[in-house]
Design a protein that fits this description.
This protein is of the alpha/beta class. It is built from 6 helices and 13 strands. Helices cover about 30% and strands about 30% of the residues. Helix 1 runs antiparallel to helix 2. Bound molecules: uracil (URA).
């Protein structure tokens, strides 16, 4: 898969940013970007992007165990996902809820820890109104953060601080996003160089209100019909 940071000239990026070159991901991204897409279809697009980005992120991240199973014909080697290694999904509300169903379809045993962050439209700072993270995150826990828009990086930096303070290992954290922009990626890269991001695309930049351009608008408003 293409590791995209250097292609975009973001030479200082240390963290790994993957943009899966898959037609299904491109299709649902196009649906999500289109301003004429109604809310119900926008939610479908986020669900599908959540599913396929989680699929890509989980490739070398889930831990497996080797064993054997008995087929109707004979014994054969088998690989299962190890249920003893904890997996956690952290949707950042509101918009992260849109990616959650797709992520859970692939990670049905994962614990889901909701984190509600609101962005002050003047200062662009994130403030927390709901934090369901546990007091401690067990060693080896795989953490998947669902955050569709990586814009200024305020919310994702907040989430990463809360997670690492509780023991999460940044090298075992994966972020799935729909649109990522350079300011957020640079912020994450400086603080967490071992982190990996899976995004449907990387866009040019931000406007003066902190929205990604061309982006897809306000993901929370579009998902919940509150435009
Ligand atoms: N949040 C959004 O929903 N959209 C943006 O473009 C940036 C942050």
């Amino acid at each position: 898969m293409v590791q995209i940071g250097h292609i975009l000239g973001i030479m200082s990026l240390q963290l790994r940013v993957f943009v899966p070159p898959h037609p299904v991901i491109k299709h649902w991204l196009a649906v999500a970007r289109d301003r004429h897409t109604p809310s119900v279809l926008f939610r479908t697009a986020l669900t599908e992007l959540g599913r396929w980005l989680t699929y890509e992120a989980a490739r070398d991240w889930l831990v497996t165990v080797e064993t054997t199973v008995q087929t109707p014909l004979r014994e054969c080697p088998a690989t299962f996902i190890n249920p003893e290694v904890p997996v956690a999904v952290v949707p950042i509300l509101r918009a992260g809820l849109g990616l959650l169903d797709g992520a859970q379809a692939l990670l049905p045993l994962a614990s889901v820890y909701h984190l509600g962050l609101a962005r002050d439209e003047e200062t662009l700072q994130a403030s927390c109104y709901l934090n369901k993270l546990p007091e401690a995150i067990a060693p080896q826990t795989r953490v998947l953060i669902c955050e569709p828009m990586l814009a200024t990086g305020g919310s994702i930096a907040y989430a990463m601080r809360e997670l690492t303070q509780r023991g999460a290992d940044p090298a075992l954290v994966r972020i799935i996003s729909v649109v990522a922009a350079r300011p957020a990626l640079q912020k994450l890269s400086q603080a967490y160089p071992s982190l990996q991001v899976y995004s449907a695309c990387i866009d040019e930049g931000l406007n003066d209100r902190g929205y990604i351009v061309p982006g897809l608008g306000d993901a929370g408003d579009r998902a919940f019909g509150t435009d």
